Structures are given as structure tokens and as C-alpha cells.
Hints:
By secondary structure, the chain is an alpha+beta fold. The chain folds into 5 domains: 6-130, Galactose-binding domain-like (Jelly Rolls), CATH 2.60.120; 147-242, Galactose-binding domain-like (Jelly Rolls, Sandwich), CATH 2.60.120; 283-440, Glycosyltransferase, CATH 1.50.10.10; 494-577, no CATH class; 579-651, Maltose phosphorylase, domain 3, CATH 2.60.420.10. The protein has 14 helices and 32 strands. Strands 14, 15, 16, 17, 18, 19, 20 and 21 form an 8-stranded antiparallel beta sheet that branches. It has a 6-stranded antiparallel beta sheet with strand order 7-6-9-4-11-12, with no helix packed on it. Helix 1 crosses helix 5, helix 4 runs antiparallel to helix 5 (306-317) and helix 10 (462-470) packs across helix 12 (498-510). The chain is globular and about 80 Å long. The model has no long low-confidence stretch (mean pLDDT 97).
Amino acid sequence: MNPQWIWYPGDYELYHSLRLNTRREERDYQWPAFWRLDDCYHNVRFRREFFCPAPETVTVYAHGVGYAALDGKKHPFGRAIPLSPGQHTLEAAVACPGGLPCLYALGASAASGSDWLANAMDAAWIPAGTDAQYSSPEDDPERFPFAYEALEPVEVRPCQDGVLYDYGRQTFAALCLSEMEDSDSLGIFYGESEEEALDTENSYLMDTVPAGSSSYRCPPRAFRYLFLRGSTRYSLQALYEYLPLPCPGSFSCSDPRLNEIWQTAKYTFHLNSREFFLDGIKRDRWIWSGDAFQSYLINRYLFADPGLVRRTIIALRGKDPIASHINTILDYSLYWIMSVESYYMDTADLDFIRFLYPRMVSLLDYCLAQCGEDGFLRGRPEDWVFVDWADMDKTGAVCAEQMLLAESLRVMDRLEALLGAGESGYGARAAALCQAIDEKFWCPARGAYVDSFESGRQNVTRHANIFALRFGIAGEEKREQIIRSVLLNDGVPAISTPYFKFYELEALCEIGHLSEVTARMLNYWGGMLDRGATTFWEEYDPQITGIASYGMYGDRYGKSLCHAWGASPIYLLGRYYLGVTPTAPGWTSFRVAPQLGGLESLRGDVPVHGGTVHVELDSQRLLVSCDRPGGTVCFGGQTYDLPQGRPLVIEIPQH
């Protein structure tokens, strides 16, 4: 076994999320996240019992101070410890007051890895955390292993009292200046748009190179445009910082604009896939649970990277006791509970579910403690009831929140049964809540669920009604009314964020309106491309033009122009057009039900937990192949077993 660095489980993620959530910048100040930030434990013990078949040595390295103890005898770190044949116990104590305590044991019989145990100076020994990318004594788990690539601008031109650089598309890079000759300071202004870079009073990100510097390296930041004001005597290099991710997912079709949308979504999503799934690369660069929930589903059809999902889930949850909702947002706590089952569906990783389950229970208990006697969850003054950036009635009990709670209870009921953890009544409580939702929020006159019954306004938006379809809360009769009265009704206010368009278009796909979804993707995401977007935005309203289209939160350039939730076409095209979806955990069985959705042809690949499904469809034939078993093809009203390793070809009758 090759040794790997080990740490207390979950602490690697908390260490890096603490640093990430304190890096946000806005003009000339830092802006740490406004929720509790948990840290790793700083004093940890490690242990392994093992059998040594022949004489050898083991060398223990650590980040921190402490010792290694073989069969009770202490040794310093970094020195070879002789091992005699027989049974041994190797323990280590590592304290790192300013960082992440971690350990690396080099030896044939006692190599460090996931078979070691760890504890935080308590009585509970649990499997240590590890990551295969840290496998050398020289590796440092406190440094995240990004890759770097030099970028060249596509245009450089004198402008005002400086130089404007255009790198052609949004990026995230560190600037390196050298050969600087002037004694004056140099101002650097970053812009997702040209207007932002040149608006030196209002550009969101900026840097100042101190006077007299001969060289300078800036922290990595998001930009497409750079405006350097002051000296022109310097050498400038931009180093693109990114996480190398294999990309087994692909999509192309007969519509060039839709292909451009998919590729732009892919690039948008990659930029936001870093230590964790981030919201955007310019403004927050934080981890948001509702955003991440969608990222897990997009990841399913693009990178299929389970480590990135695990890291994000752990970082978001933090430690007990709970002080507030995740990101302070009521709905985001519920998305977190739902996300664990989503991860299990992709991986069948039951060990991870066992590890997280106590934290799921404590978080759900925290939510349920806010429920009134009527069973409804209500936000407190310190809670953010979000749902979406929309004009909604959020008085008292909000319908969309109750639906998220009902689905979270169902998830807990299913995972409890999976783990054999006993019977906590989650399923019965979910059923009772769904009945209460129907009684209190359903408005027969509107044929829809209202946002809130407590205000008496009977305000109808798309959000709760989409959830009613997504989570199967609406019965068949109500479902048909919602489709007519809300989903296909232009009189209900339109959704303006890619965030909730994800769920709206998913609902349209579920009822078979793929041609409508195609048109909406071409109009909405294509509209951003028409505005010159090279990545997809946090919000897009076609009615807002010019510099006003960059504003949000009362800030002229507050809108993120590279936002992960803008990448949802990847999910829609993989899930409903290529038609590939798991039907059992870990993709041990999966269904392929492709649809053209008004296109002339399409083709693509979907990763399926160690394999790949390839789909080609046009008006004349369907071809599906996969290099692993378990697939079923549903097409033309027929069902076919998908053979492993050879294509299934279905000729389509011509009329």
C-alpha cells in the first residue's frame, strides 16, 4: 500500500473552507462569511495496530509537533523506527496550533492510509481522513493542489492613463509583474466587463503595487479585463489557476447555438469547481448549500467527481453544536440533507452516509425545533428565508419551505432504513406535513399552491408549485391544474435567475415539453451569449440593458457574471435529452431514454460510476453503448436491455 497523508476525518475540508470563506474581497477591504466558521481540531491522535512479518523500519512525518510511539515507546518524527517481526501498535500525537495536524507513515507494514484511526483527544477512535493526491512525504495537505497555466491577452490597448488588457473570456488567475522600473505605485483594476475594469472608482476588485517594487505577485482573482493605471514599464504574466478535472461528459447536437451554450456552461462550471463547488468566482467565492445542491447534479453529467462533492458536503455542514442554519438560510439546511442522498445515488458510498448520518439527525432536529404546533417550519428573525431572488410572499410559514422539509423528512426516512438505524417516524411526519400543506396552501380558485396562507394574500408564484411537482407532493388532479395554471401560464411572474430556471425547466422536461425547453434555453442562455457573455450569469433579465445589466445588491457591478448555477443546461441535456439517469445507487442499474426535443440530431457521453454511456440519436436511428452492465434503454414505447461493450442500434420507422 502506498502511504498517504492522514488527518482527523472532515478536518481537511474544514481547514480549507475556513480559509476560502475568509478570502472574499470588495474593493479595499476583506469580507469574511457572515456565518459561524468551524475550524479543524488542532490536537489529534493517530493509531494503527498491525503485524510485521519481517524486520523493517517505519518513519513517521507530521505537520505539527508531537511524537510517534511504537508499543508505548516514544520516538521523534522524521527518524526511522526499527520494527521486529510480530504484532505492534503505532500511535502518534500531533498538535498544530496554526494549521491542520496530519501524519505520514512510510513503511511496508505500517504505511499511513484509511486503515489508520484518529481521535480528537477523546474516547472515539474513527477511521482517519485521507486523499490519494497527498501521497508523498513532501506533499502539504495545507496547500490545495491547483494547476497553473500562462494566459495571453487577446488585445492590449492604451486607454485613459493606462493600459487595458482583454483576455477574451472570464478567467481566474494570479498576476505576476516583473521588470518594474518606475518608482510610482501601479493600480490594477479587474473587471468581468470592460466597463467595470475602467470604472476605477467602482470596480469590485483592485490591487495596488507598492511604489519602488521591482516585482509583485497578486492573489488570484476573477476577471476578463484588466486596467493597469500608472507605469507602463513592466512585464505582466497571468497564471490561470484551476483544478485539473477529467471531463467524461460531452454533448453536441444539430443546433450550433445550443452547442455553444453547452460549452459555455462547461467552462462556467469548471471555473467554479475548485476546493469546493463555489457560487461564483468574482464576488463571494463562498460555498452555498442551495447552489451546491444543483452543482452536484450538474457534476453527475460532466465531471462525475465524487471527491469534490464529498468535500463540499462536509465543509458546508461544519461541526456540532449547530449555531444557525447553513449559510444562515432556512432552505439551505434542507438542501444539505437532501444532498447526502443525491451523493449516495451516484456512489453507493454507504461509509460516507454512516459518517454523516449523526450530523444529518442533529441538523434535522434543529429544523424541526422551529416547527409550530401546526407542524410548519417558520423562519426566525435571524434566519434568511431565501427560496429565490423573486417577489414572493414570505409571511410566516412559506409553502416552498414546507415542501423542502417534507422531502428532507422522506430522505431521512429512506437513509434511516438503509442504515438500519431504527424508526424515528420521519416518514409518518412527512406524510402528515404533505397533508397539512394541501389543506393550508392549496387554492382551488387559482389551481395552485399559494406562497403563504398566513398573509391572506393568496399570492401565487412558480416556486412552490414547481416543488410540488418535483417532490411528488401534488396528486394527479392538482398536478394537472398546476401545469395549466402555473407552469404554462405566462400570467404568473417569470423566473429571472438561472438558479430556479433549473427547477422550472426540469419540471417542463418531466411533463414532456422538451421542445419548449429547447426554445427557452436558446432564448435565455442564448440571450446572455448575445450580450457577449463568455460565462453564464447569476441573474439575467432581457429587459435590462447596458451597464445596468451588471448591477445587483445595490452595487453597480455586484452581479456575478460567472455563476455555477448558470450551468444547468449540462444537467438538462444529459438527464433528459441524452436521457441517462441512475435507477439504483452507484449506477448499478440505469435507464437511457433519449429524446430529440425538437433537434434534428444529438450525441453525447454520460459518466456512469466507472463507465460511460454513449448516445447518438437522429430521426432515423438510435445508437446506445456502454462499457459497464446494468443499462436499460427505453425508446419508442419499448424497453431493451443494453449489452455491455457493444452498441444497441434501433432503426426508427419512417412515415
